[in-house]
Amino acid sequence: MRVLFTVYGAKTHFYNMVPLAWALRAAGHEVCVASQPELVPAIARTGLPAVSVGEAADSEERTTTDSDAAVTNGTSWRDLNAGITETRPEALTWDYVLGTFTIACSIHYEHATGGRTMLDDTVEFARSWQPDLVIWDALSFAGPVAARAAGAAHARMLFGVDYIGRMYGVYRRLLAEQPPERRDDVLGDWTAGRLDRFGCTWEPELTAEQMTGQWTIDPTPPWMQTDLDLDVRPLRYLPYNGPTGVPDWVREKPQRPRVCLTLGMTAREVLGGDVFSVTDMIEAAAELDIELVATLDTRQLAEGGPLPPNVRAVDFVPLNELLPSCSAIIHHGGFGTLGNALAHGVPHLVAPGRYWDEVDFGRRLEERGAGLLLDYQQLSGDGLRSELDGSSFQKKLSRLVEDPSFRQNAAAVRDEMHTTPSPHQMVPQLEELTAAHRS
């Protein structure tokens, strides 16, 4: 069969899909990846065929959509995501949920992930190439429309906690409870408008497919998943770090506990920077008796002076190769980094970004005894070194390195992941589901 992957122009979202794409390719299926022009070189370096769709990030259409400062009209990525990631029951009123999806449809989903040109180009290619199955990143809403227009089955692939599926379930319940005069179906209108452009008739069930797919592929561990009334197919996360060489020093046995500090690619490449002082964190960590490997670029390091002697700064090193030698990892909670650490049973110190599910992941790791979560007061000033209550950044990092229970619990989490179907084992499921859903 022919399988089309669609993903917007962020490496971390694409890298999440690479092992499954290659499993399908190795099983004899044709595979192609459609994304924005800036991601095409990264796709090509995986050996997968790439199709450029939509406008580049620096085009006139998208100049105000890719920075954290202004997605459009001064609305930031953090502001947009904050509505969808809300989980407090008392906050989830109809006005709140309706307003959240109204903003998301008009700004986030429509523009920040490619706009009309990406949708048009993806549909045009799908109708030409005629895929049997479309697998779409959970923020790449061109995928389900292209699948409908081409008569293909389609599956949504998650990149973390399924806040969208959860909020959509709340939306459907509250919509049904509204009196007729307040039953504004913004998601139905949005879906109908997108399908109508390509001569496809809207039906109520197509809104659900637009938001959550005909089924969902979930690479997060079961204890991180949200219990939803959806057809969810679990998938074991396999690390893919991109093509790169492995430095000789990675294979050398460290003379003291090695700790990796990484804040991911998305903040520095897409969202305009980190949310706290990297230099302050490095200085505080370096005061401990550890070897700190900081995967940071020159801009992230520019604000500081010379690095302490026990700090090694590298722009990039594959986590899949580095982490087996590490006693702990400090990271922002992004799913790509998190998945690498989970796969190698390394304890986590989460200094959370505020873009999606980073805080939730940190809390759940704490509950499993496999990591610790920092709050924002611990990421600046005295919070990095405070001796008052043992909750400072330094104290928590010391605990992770010195207390063997964290390593044992992280290893238990890793072993649980190995019970989840691998990409290779998922291929027969995808073949059966495609045959059932393809029109």
From TrEMBL:
Signal peptide stretch: none
Annotated InterPro entries: EryCIII-like_C, EryCIII-like_N, Glycosyl_450act, Glycosyltransferase_28, UDP_glucos_trans
Q: What is this protein called?
A: Activator-dependent family glycosyltransferase
- Keyword GTP-binding assigned: no
Task: Give the Erythromycin biosynthesis protein CIII-like C-terminal domain ranges.
Answer: 281-433
Q: Which residues form a coiled coil?
A: none
| Region Disordered: start-end pairs | 414-439
The lineage's top-level taxon is Bacteria
Please state every residue range assigned to the domain named Erythromycin biosynthesis protein CIII-like N-terminal: 22-264
The record's Pfam families line, in alphabetical order, gives: EryCIII-like_C, EryCIII-like_N
Hydrolase among the record's keywords?
no
**Gene3D superfamilies reported in the protein's UniProt record:** Glycogen Phosphorylase B (3.40.50.2000)
Q: Which UniProt keywords apply?
A: Antibiotic biosynthesis, Glycosyltransferase, Transferase
Q: Which family does it belong to?
A: Belongs to the glycosyltransferase 28 family.
